[in-house]
Amino acid sequence: MDMTLVFLLAAGLSGGFVNGLAGFGTALFSLGWLLQVMPPQEAVAIALVCSLATGVPGVWQVRRSIDRRRLALFTIPALAGIPLGLILLGLIDKRILSVLVGGMLLLYGGYFAFRRTLPAIEGRWTLVEAGIGFVGGVLGAMAGLSGALPSMWLALRPWPKAVQRGIMQPFSMIILMVATLLLAFDGIFSPVVIRNLLLTLPTSLVGAVVGLWLFRRMPDSLYPRVLIGLMLVSGGALLLRTILSGAG
């Protein structure tokens, strides 16, 4: 079997599964495979489209739990952060940014993953959540990492899993949709990219269905633990990918 096809299928399955289970993380888990067989910009374009496609069932699953006011509190500042992220994209070394974000996820996930009890942040934190949304928009435009900070914050909020996901997944999809449109206007979706996307997307959808099936059966108390565990794995994967790309 063609190894390119193997990497494409693995990228779709792993990224789709994580998105179905947690509502974020498609790019972090799929790019490691995609970058082995294509240039970074093409890999990001495929990861973004797969993330959007696999995110639709997740949003539909929690549609009744979406709090529009809470979602807007994160999303509106994020949209304002996207232009700044695009400006910074040409000024800041993306490898340094990846190391900083990966290290943050790794430390955060490592610290909370092994604690018997998790802190619960209650009350109204309007300015904090607006700031997290803004930085999420900046990071999304710069490196496709829009969900990093929101997922860290929401994991510590004492809300049901559907409410947490009802903020995180629509938030990420809006940011990633803007990024995808920008890439499309830049002409990245060549016939080769579209062909590779059509090979990757079916397994991504299969992975999302399996992950969403597990999400439905997961107790509310377990969901924050799953998010934190995925942050630990995501941080390690991001650091490893950055180190390997630098060594190459």
β-strand percent reads under 5%
Question: In one word, what is the shape?
Answer: globular
The whole-number mean of residue pLDDT values reads 83
State the distance separating the first and last CA atoms.
Answer: 25 Å
Provide keyphrases for this structure:
248 residues; mainly alpha; 10 helices; 0% strand; globular
Structure explained in plain terms:
It is a single chain. It contains 10 helices and no strands. The chain starts with a helix and ends with a helix. The protein has helices at residues 3-22, 26-34, 40-61, 68-89, 94-113, 126-143, 148-154, 161-185, 191-216, 223-247. It has one domain (3-247).
What is the compact description of this entry?
The protein has helices at 3-22, 26-34, 40-61, 68-89, 94-113, 126-143, 148-154, 161-185, 191-216, 223-247. The protein is mostly helical and 248 residues long.
